[in-house]
From TrEMBL:
Example of a GO MF term: glutathione transferase activity
Protein name: glutathione transferase
Family statement: Belongs to the GST superfamily. Theta family.
GO terms under biological process: glutathione metabolic process
GST C-terminal domain boundaries: 88-236
CDD domains referenced in this protein's UniProt entry, alphabetically: GST_C_Theta, GST_N_Theta
Reaction catalysis annotation: RX + glutathione = an S-substituted glutathione + a halide anion + H(+)
Enzyme Commission number(s) from the entry: 2.5.1.18
Keywords noted in UniProt: Cytoplasm, Transferase
Location of the GST N-terminal domain: 1-82
Subunit structure: Homodimer.
Name of the gene encoding the protein in the UniProt record: Gstt1_0
Top-level taxonomy: Eukaryota, Metazoa, Chordata, Craniata, Vertebrata
GO cellular component: a single term: cytoplasm
EC category name: transferase
């Protein structure tokens, strides 16, 4: 049995793992796990990942959760080009710095805006209140400014002159809001130019393939969600 990757292309970290594997010609079997149907919560999937999250990796009897752990495992196992996770100490530290920061900043704020705009209308049948959207947008703008000023500065990429895992993970978080019609690159010339560089370095065609799911809002229509998943989300977003 070879390498299996359990993914849903609606998921930002899943797309990062998918793009990385494809860009580096890593052979794997794509195992789709439909998040909106709750397939990550089944007993069968828990045998792969007890945490009930994706992406997940399975290779014979070895299983692995968490996107960063999976990306680093793939980079080391398949000896991918150094720029993805540089050997040079300070460049690697720059990648690690972003990976440490992103969870409670970029990912958290981008995901909050996305989920409220995507899920609240599905759950309630009403749009998110304008005041709430303004607050979420302002909070996200703070971390986008930090990303530009702290992590990008005047460099082509986060770690310097070449694309890294940090850039790939950041791109997938920032681009995610396109599915709800919220373009975070609009009005941000530095961010838009960085996006073009990342997509160019990874491969335009591969990025278009991976991001195709974001261009069709019907992928998150109410009929895509199971009642169980809607009830689960209500606990988080209808407090």
């Amino acid at each position: 049995m070879g390498l299996e990757l359990y993914l849903d292309m609606l998921s930002q970290p899943c797309r990062a793992v998918y793009i990385f594997a494809r860009a580096n010609n890593i052979p794997f079997e794509f195992k789709r796990v439909d998040l909106l149907k709750g397939q990550h919560r089944t007993e069968e999937f828990q045998k792969v990942n007890l945490l009930m999250t994706i992406p997940a990796l399975k290779e014979d009897s070895f299983t692995l959760a968490e996107s960063i752990a999976i990306l680093l495992y793939l980079a080391r196992k398949f000896k991918t080009p150094d720029h993805w996770y540089p050997a040079e100490l300070q460049k690697r530290a720059r990648v690690d710095e972003y990976l440490s920061w992103q969870h409670t900043n970029m990912r958290a704020k981008a995901n909050d805006l996305l989920c409220y705009k995507m899920l609240v209308p599905v759950i309630t049948g009403k749009p998110v209140p304008a005041e709430k959207m303004q607050t979420l947008t302002e909070e996200l703008n703070v971390v986008l400014n930090q990303f530009e000023q702290k992590f990008l500065q005047d460099k082509p990429f986060i770690a310097g002159t070449e694309v890294s895992l940090a850039d790939l993970l950041a791109l997938e978080e920032i681009i995610q809001n396109l599915i709800v019609g919220h373009d975070l690159f609009e009005g941000r010339a530095k961010l838009a130019a960085w996006r073009k560089r990342v997509e160019g370095a990874v491969g335009q065609q591969l990025c278009q393939e991976a991001h195709g799911v974001l261009m069709d809002p019907s992928n998150i229509s109410a009929d895509k969600f199971t009642p169980e998943i809607l009830e689960l989300w209500k606990k988080f977003y209808l407090k």
